[in-house]
Design a protein that fits this description.
The chain is mostly helical and 189 residues long. The chain has six helices and no strands.
Length: 189
């Protein structure tokens, strides 16, 4: 397979790499897995799962096209994976009780708003990811303080789950921070 390197010089031509083909292929296989296992999914189930998988991959595609900075790409990838996992866990089984899980969704909204305010610049992205981590930690603390601990999870499990996501967003923030230090002039307005 021939690979094309997309750069600003060649007009941002699409870069066909083995990693990207593999990523999209794995997403397609994950989407087809319920069909192979005979799971009783409806068309709307497949549509929801497709959106759930393809939107983050599409966003990552845009990141890959926008920058060749591996640190920035890794930070974006970790943030997207953390977001998808958090939505999946919160939506499928829940972390705390249903009212408290809304706090986790609001924490993600903090990150989304921060990303757009930052206009995708690395330093602003770092601040947005730190704010998301702080909002997630606050959601977990509020859940515990308010006693919103369901029978399926203990307080320590909520702490561990919340801590896991907080760490992912902090790692993403640190990677964005490093990307900002690497080439600050490239991101200037």
């Amino acid at each position: 397979m021939e690979e094309m390197q997309g750069t600003a010089k060649d007009g941002g031509a699409w870069r066909m790499s083995r990693w990207r083909v593999t990523t999209w292929g794995v997403a397609a296989l994950i989407l087809l897995l319920p069909l192979a296992t005979g799971a009783p999914w409806t068309g709307s189930d497949f549509a929801f799962a497709g959106i759930f998988l393809l939107v983050p991959l599409g966003i990552y595609e845009l990141v890959v096209r926008r920058t060749g900075d591996l640190t920035y790409r890794t930070g974006a990838g970790i943030a997207l994976v953390a977001t998808v996992l958090l939505l999946w866990v919160s939506g499928a089984v829940g972390i705390a009780d249903s009212e408290a899980d809304l706090l986790y969704f609001l924490a993600l909204a903090v990150g989304v708003v921060g990303v757009f305010v930052a206009r995708f610049r690395p330093q602003g992205m770092a601040y947005a990811m730190f704010a998301t981590a702080l909002a997630l930690a606050s959601a977990g603390a509020a859940s515990l303080v308010a006693g919103m601990v369901p029978a399926r999870n203990s307080a320590s499990e909520i702490l561990v789950i919340t801590g896991f996501f907080v760490v992912l967003f902090i790692v993403s923030a640190l990677l964005f921070w490093e990307a900002a230090r690497g080439e600050p002039e490239r991101w200037a307005v």
